[in-house]
Specification:
The complex is a heterodimer of chains A (370) and B (602). By secondary structure, chain A is of the alpha/beta class. Chain A has helices at 27-43, 48-51, 73-86, 106-115, 129-134, 141-153, 172-185, 202-205, 215-231, 250-256, 283-288, 301-308, 317-324, 330-341, 356-360, 362-369; strands spanning 2-8, 57-65, 88-99, 119-125, 158-165, 189-194, 235-238, 241-243, 261-264, 269-272, 275-278, 293-297, 315-316, 345-347, 351-354. Chain A has a domain at 2-255: Aldolase class I (TIM Barrel), CATH 3.20.20.70. Classes of the chains: A alpha/beta (370), B alpha+beta (602). Chains A and B meet through α9, α10, β10, α12 and α16 of A and α13 of B.
């Protein structure tokens, strides 16, 4: 079974660190965009070059953005219902909607839950209001708390919070405040990203004036967070993702397991039949019917290793052999052994994986291994 | 139809860099219909891309022009000269082939270092000078003042100098008239034994070496056995002729007074060196022409392929360049740090840069070069004298009695307001002040004895930037002087990196060491462990920096869209590693080598 992704390229405001594709919408635009997604699902014209003979059965659906909650419950459900009509969506599918804590009420979550949505990912970033404001997030801690409670009241308990580390003014103490908030709310999943300064963002331009923790401090924050969450039963399963047992994101695991997925919407990427393709970053173009374009062939051994090594499970030798019909190259194992000696990897008879310190330099390690 | 000797004029054009030599040459070609308009590229004579870009002539070229005046046809042989001090010897041979020289002075800039240096050279060869004031089309042109300078500084009648714009062509015909009027016709006896001066030689894929000559005495024709008097090498002449702007025109013979070319299936320009005398085996001359000298490289550096697999390609490229460049020397060298490469010798820093650029551009090679060095004379306690051009061969200081380094006689020309700045710079470069004269109200000449090794790093760049480009500079080697030298070693993670060692005056060792340590720190990427950078004299560490260990190199977010991008990123990272050099366990990018060559840049 594959994953289905909808990119919702709209935001009420642009965060200063974000280079994701989004724009400010009006109602007409939101309707037109919803129509376009539904049109694509029913006709398949935009992806025709890649979906011929493809079995479009999905057991995860993910609304990402941008800010999907900007669409409102009705439009989101219209899209979901069209997906159920056009494709085969498994009974027990994981259906996630990313939400911004501001601008969502109890009714919104009740509506989503009723329509079949069973997982909500909320952008918390930080539980310290001053830190949140610097990130351009204007809901205060109370509003976030309320949004969370509303979600839980609606019956959706599979919740994820986004947390950022390495943000301006952050200290171990202020990070603890954020982590304690997450733990006190009882959420089963946390995604914790290290801030990356992307070019063409306000943060990038102002980088010299921001009180950003240095490289070593960010590493300390990361290790502290991983330890704290683990101690409290929220276990690391990917470089930036933590969950109670049974709660890892099934959709996102498809990316890291090198499995197939279909992504619809501008700048959404897909991987089907060995090909990676994507829609250009052009919302009007997507609405008008512009087609997806070929990106690259995917799924080779290098890509598989690169992705699997993001997981705490790492690479299982048996899985690799089954997938590629050959054992891992000797060079890989030899180097992995050396990294294990430096405490950056763990190596058993069955698998190879990165340690937490290894994750911190994973680009280096993976570029050495491949 | 043969033009009589009295209607032949052999001349060069001499000028400071950028004063418009090549542009004037182009106009002369046009005016004499030597080149069809449609073939006219800008600056015909500078036919290498590099020459056109840098606005300098690297090699001499020659061309024969036919000019009719008052119904009489004249043969004008224009012998172009290289425009840089690195090629002074080649300039002197070109001038020796002439009876006159057109001296161009820029109407906006006046007389510069090379204007004077070339004037003295021309006067040494007893040439008749034809002054020309160029660039009169520019708003800043001050031809009256420049005419006065010509009178006062050079001692020529400034009122005779045609005022021209080579760019627009204005008044350029006057230059031709003055050449005919002022430059004497050549002399020489057609029946005497052959003596022909080689003023340039160029390798051609089809003809072998084309030897450019000025016939002083005698004649030469195809079938003759030519003999190079310096080397004794003999060849059967295949073809002789004259140079047109874009082709070679074969002739039956070349006679005394004429300028032309000879081909004889010669395989390398080292067999027909500039300055040598050609005679014939049948009727050899008793004495060669005066002034031959084998040019010797003065600046040396190691050149290594960035990718060791390119060693053979680099070797072939150097061999090809050497076919056409008798002054370039190279021999295989092995560095513990850089692997297999070549120790190369050059006439000067410009020559070095040109060769490096040609290797990279024309042969598509990625190179790593070591710090340039001059030849030091090391007097050992046992009486032996070693000539060291490679820091790795520097002997144990305990066995050294004393060391000598090459000194230059340097002249800097500048507007007076920069005198202080220039003196500071020369002082920093261990210069020994010799004197200063006002050559005009707004031009001074400052003379210094400067050690060659202080010039070869970046002296010229520093001079230009500190004087906003106004100062010009010229130098010649004047011999060796005793000096207090030390060898600096660079240690990365405790291991000495031979390719980074260099020899320096002890007064400058500490400052230089600190700068190098800082530069290396900035240019060596963090690696999985801490890397101490140490600079040492013998066993004594005099500067130290540390590259901290890599802690964080991670893409935190990786979802569907990122995967291809992420893969490309990793591939780039891998590519980058390939371009790095491993020293023991430390990986050093090429940029680090470059950075320490340009220490003065901020």
């Amino acid at each position: 079974m594959k994953g289905l992704y909808f990119h919702i390229p709209f935001c009420r405001s642009k965060c200063p660190y974000c280079d994701f594709y989004s724009r400010l919408p009006d109602d007409a635009m939101l309707d037109a965009y919803t129509d376009a997604l539904c049109d694509e699902m029913s006709t398949g014209t935009r992806t025709a070059a890649f979906t011929e003979n493809a079995d479009l059965s999905f057991d995860t659906v993910y609304f990402g953005g941008g800010t999907p909650s900007v669409l409102g419950g009705e439009r989101l459900l219209r899209i979901l219902n069209e997906a159920k009509k056009a494709y085969r969506i498994a009974e027990n599918a994981e259906i996630t909607v990313e939400c911004n804590p501001s601008g969502v009420d109890e009714e919104f979550f009740r509506q989503l839950a009723h329509g079949g949505v069973n997982r909500i990912s909320l952008g918390l970033q930080s539980a310290v209001d001053a830190e949140r404001r610097q990130l351009g997030r204007f809901a205060d801690k109370k509003q976030v708390e309320k949004a969370l409670k509303n979600t839980q009241k609606s019956g959706i308990t599979n919740l994820s919070l986004d947390v950022m580390i390495g943000i301006p003014d952050q200290t171990i103490a202020s990070l603890d405040e954020t982590l304690q908030f997450c733990l006190s709310m009882g959420v089963p999943h946390i995604s914790a990203y290290m801030l990356a300064l992307e070019e063409n963002t306000v943060f990038y331009r102002r980088r010299d004036r921001l009180n950003l923790p240095d490289e070593d401090a960010v590493c300390e924050l990361y290790l502290h967070m991983a330890e704290t969450l683990t101690k409290n039963g929220i276990l690391q399963y990917e470089i930036s993702n933590f969950a109670k047992p049974g709660f890892p994101s099934r959709h996102n695991l498809k990316y890291w397991n090198c499995e197939e997925y279909l992504g619809l919407g501008p700048s959404a990427h897909s991987f089907l039949g060995g090909k990676r393709f994507f829609f250009p970053r052009d919302t009007d173009g997507f609405i008008k019917g512009d087609c997806a374009v070929f990106d690259a062939f995917g799924g080779d051994a290098e890509e598989y290793l690169m992705l699997r090594l993001r997981l705490t499970d790492g690479v299982r030798f048996a899985d690799y052999k089954e997938r590629f019909d050959s054992p891992l190259p000797d060079g890989f194992l030899k180097k992995a052994h050396a990294f294990a000696g430096q405490g950056l990897m763990t190596l058993t008879d069955e698998h190879a994986a990165l340690t937490r310190n290894g994750f911190l330099v994973s680009n280096y390690i993976v570029s050495e291994l491949l | 139809m043969k033009i009589p000797k009295k209607h032949i004029r052999n001349f060069s054009i001499i000028a400071h860099i950028d004063h418009g030599k090549s542009t004037l040459a182009d106009r002369l070609l046009e005016l004499t219909n030597s080149v069809a308009k449609r073939d006219m590229q800008q600056q015909i004579l500078d036919d290498m891309d590099l020459e056109r870009e840098r606005g300098i002539t690297i090699k001499a070229h020659a061309v024969t022009l036919y000019y009719t005046q008052d119904g009489e046809e004249y043969e004008l042989n224009l012998i172009d000269t290289p425009g840089h001090v690195d090629f002074n010897y080649e300039v002197s041979r070109s001038l020796a082939a002439c009876e006159g020289a057109v001296l161009i002075v820029d109407a906006t800039q006046g007389i510069e270092a090379q204007t004077l240096a070339n004037t003295y050279l021309a006067l040494d060869h007893d040439l008749e000078l034809v002054p020309v004031i160029n660039k009169i089309d520019l708003p800043a042109a001050d031809p009256d003042r420049v005419a006065l300078d010509i009178e006062e500084i050079i001692g020529l009648d400034g009122s005779l100098a045609p005022r021209v714009s080579a760019k627009t062509g204005e008044n350029v015909e006057e230059v031709l008239k003055q050449i005919v009027a002022l430059v004497p016709c050549p002399e020489g006896d057609d029946d005497a034994p052959l003596r022909a001066l080689v003023f340039d030689s160029v390798y051609d894929n089809y003809k072998g070496v084309i030897v450019y000559v000025r016939i002083m005495d005698g004649t030469i024709k195809p079938g003759d056995t030519m003999r190079m008097m310096a080397t004794g090498a003999e060849f059967t002449v295949v073809e002789v002729g004259k140079m047109a702007a874009t082709s070679l025109n074969p002739a039956k013979k070349l006679c005394a007074g004429e300028v032309g070319y000879i081909t004889a299936s010669i395989k390398t320009v080292r067999d027909a060196r500039v300055g040598d005398t050609v005679t014939t085996a049948e009727n050899p001359a008793a004495e060669p022409l005066a002034g031959y000298k084998k040019v010797n490289p003065m600046v040396f550096c190691g050149i290594y392929p960035a990718d060791g697999a390119d060693y053979e390609a680099l070797k072939e490229a150097l061999e090809k360049l050497q076919l056409n460049d008798a002054a370039l020397s190279f021999e295989p060298e092995t560095s513990g740090a850089l692997g297999f490469g070549f120790r190369c010798g050059f006439l000067g820093l410009l020559h070095l840069e040109i060769i490096q650029e040609r290797l990279e551009r024309e042969y598509d090679l990625d190179l790593v070069s070591t710090v340039p060095s001059v030849i030091y004379k090391i007097h050992m306690r046992n009486g032996e004298v070693l000539e060291i051009d490679n820091p790795t061969k520097y002997p144990d200081p305990a066995e050294i009695d004393f060391a000598e380094e090459p000194m230059t006689d340097a002249h800097i020309f500048s507007p007076p307001e920069f005198v202080g700045t220039i003196m500071d710079l020369c002082q920093e470069r261990r210069g020994n002040y010799k004197g200063m004269i006002y050559i005009s109200a707004d031009r001074v000449e400052i003379s210094y004895d400067l050690p060659l090794n202080e010039i070869i790093y970046d002296f010229f760049d520093a001079l230009k930037s500190r004087t906003k480009g106004y100062a010009s500079f010229d130098y010649e080697l004047k011999g060796y002087e005793q000096s207090n030298l030390v060898k600096l070693d660079v240690l990365l993670n405790g291991d000495a990196v031979d390719a980074l060692s260099f020899i320096i005056h002890s007064d400058k060792a500490y400052g230089r060491a600190r700068k190098i340590a800082e530069k290396l720190k900035d240019n060596i990427p963090r690696q999985m462990f801490e890397i101490p950078i140490q600079i040492a004299i013998g066993g004594k560490i005099i500067a130290r920096e540390t590259v901290k260990a890599l802690r964080k190199d991670v893409l935190a977010k990786c979802y569907g869209g990122d995967i291809t991008r992420k893969k490309k990123l990793l591939e780039k990272q891998k590519e980058g590693k390939k371009r790095m050099r491993s020293f023991g366990t430390v990986e050093v990018p090429q940029e680090a080598f470059m950075a320490i060559l340009k220490l003065d840049e901020q």
